[in-house]
């Protein structure tokens, strides 16, 4: 996690990939860390098949209710929701709904984290590449800048 208390954290998870983010949100919202009081934005994108697979959902809903200015959650439920094209809703589809906001936040220094099954990355990268192209952005250069700025974090398995 970045040390800045006002950081924007965009956390993208599939399945059990949510576990590391639990440590993040506990630090942000529950732990009493000396000289640290999170006042940024923690935005969680969680992709699972069904509602009953939403891990830590009680905590997530509690944070959403308790910290409406600092915590957002968007679920991609592949067997329950449809994307804008009428197909299954995958994590990249949910992110694409907010592409302008995500790109804007990243341009302003937000950090983006990806954790979960490595199979999620090609779809996410294809979506980000298409959005970048539509904005006249060189995707390769853009992601390299994010990586060099320590804003792009990938932990997939």
Automatic annotation (TrEMBL):
Cofactor: FAD
Domain of life where this protein originates: Eukaryota
Domain Oxidoreductase FAD/NAD(P)-binding: 12-125
Pfam families the UniProt entry points to: NAD_binding_1 (PF00175)
Keywords for the protein's UniProt record, in alphabetical order: FAD, Flavoprotein, NADP, Oxidoreductase
InterPro entries membership: Flavoprot_Pyr_Nucl_cyt_Rdtase, FNR, FNR_nucleotide-bd, OxRdtase_FAD/NAD-bd
Protein name as it appears in the record: Oxidoreductase FAD/NAD(P)-binding domain-containing protein
């Amino acid at each position: 996690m970045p040390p800045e208390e006002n950081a924007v954290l965009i956390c993208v998870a599939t399945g059990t990939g949510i576990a590391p983010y639990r440590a993040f949100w506990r630090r942000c919202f529950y732990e009493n860390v000396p000289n640290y009081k999170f006042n940024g934005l923690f935005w969680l994108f969680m992709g699972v098949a069904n509602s009953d697979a939403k891990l830590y959902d009680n905590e997530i809903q509690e944070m959403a209710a308790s910290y409406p200015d600092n915590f957002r959650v968007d679920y991609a439920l592949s067997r329950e929701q449809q994307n804008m094209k009428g197909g299954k809703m995958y994590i990249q589809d949910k992110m694409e709904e907010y592409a302008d906001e995500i790109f804007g936040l990243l341009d302003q220094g937000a950090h983006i984290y990806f954790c979960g099954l490595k199979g999620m990355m090609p779809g996410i990268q294809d979506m980000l590449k298409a959005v970048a192209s539509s904005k006249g952005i060189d995707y390769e250069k853009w992601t390299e800048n994010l990586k060099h700025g320590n804003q792009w974090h990938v932990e997939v398995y």
